[in-house]
Design a protein that fits this description.
By secondary structure, the protein is α/β, with parallel strands linked by helices. The protein has helices at residues 15-26, 42-46, 59-73, 96-124, 145-165, 184-196, 202-216, 226-237, 251-260, 263-274; strands at 6-10, 30-35, 50-53, 78-81, 127-132, 170-177, 244-247.
Length: 275
């Protein structure tokens, strides 16, 4: 077994975050799960973890959570920036206020939390920062302009960060989930219909909403969150983690196609997957 580590996981109330918290707890690590919905983290607490309320867009919350862990444990070895959501709708339709919030949650929240833990990781000359991106951090689907923009930005941020902090013994890892059975499907379908379900893009929005519900539904092909949690555990426990781990349904084949195909041909492939 790997040496036990002190880990902070955001978005631990459901989906990938909860699965990752439980997976690291099973492996013997000390886990602090943070989320807005602390009432949904009973499983983390029941398994021996620590549940902390936190909104990733609230700087005071981030400072409090980091200081709580340092006061109780004296160190932070692992940060898993998992909290996030997908804002879907036509680029023409999405209000910019919502787009800015998308970036606050998916990019600036993780960036600020990283700033808070880095001084302590540098001091201890070790640490692992895991940023949960998406296959959508490299590829795009229609009606996901702002979600993809946030994940593309997170990947660029992570690549630069990895180069900066390696000299201090700190690893930066990107996880690129494919289609995973989480709340993402319901949230995406609802947003598509609310934002673009009545205008010029209504046919595309409705087709994509129906396709999303089918893929993420009970009998859909989306992977279980444990496949992502297992990749996170591997990244945390290995001495030399890879910069990227693509996991889950359709992640590897679609990323490979994007790297190989001309843009217009890939556009047709991407659109065919969601309509």
């Amino acid at each position: 077994m790997a040496k036990p580590k002190i880990a902070l996981i955001t978005g631990a109330s459901s989906g990938i975050g909860r699965a990752a918290a439980l997976e690291l707890l099973r492996a013997g690590h000390t886990v602090y799960g943070a989320a807005r919905r602390i009432q949904s983290m009973e499983a983390v607490g029941a398994s021996g973890g620590h549940a902390l309320p936190m909104d990733v867009t609230n700087d005071a919350d981030l400072e409090r959570v980091v200081q709580t862990i340092l006061d109780q444990q004296g160190r932070i070895d692992v940060l898993v920036n998992n909290a996030g959501f997908g804002l879907y709708g036509a680029a023409e339709d999405v209000p910019l206020e919502q787009a800015r919030y998308q970036l606050e949650v998916n990019l600036f929240g993780p960036a600020r939390l990283t700033q808070l833990v880095l001084p302590h990781m540098r001091k201890q000359r070790s640490g692992t920062i895991v940023n949960v991106s998406s296959m959508g951090g490299e590829i795009t689907f229609p009606l996901g302009a702002w979600y993809h923009a946030s994940k593309h930005a997170l990947e660029a941020y992570s690549d630069a960060l990895r180069q900066e902090v390696k000299r201090f013994g700190i690893d930066v890892v990107l996880i690129q989930p494919g289609l995973i059975k989480t709340e993402f499907g319901d949230v995406t379908s609802q947003a598509l219909r609310e934002i673009s379900g009545h205008g010029a893009y209504r046919e595309l929005a409705e087709a994509m909403a129906r396709s999303t519900q089918a893929i993420y539904g009970e009998h859909g092909k989306a992977s279980e969150p444990i496949v992502v949690a297992s990749a996170i555990r591997k990244a945390v426990e290995t001495a030399r983690p890879r910069p990227r781990y693509a996991v889950g349904y359709m992640a590897r084949p679609l990323l490979a196609l994007n790297r190989l195909l001309p843009a217009r041909i890939f556009d047709r492939v991407a659109t065919s997957q969601v309509t």
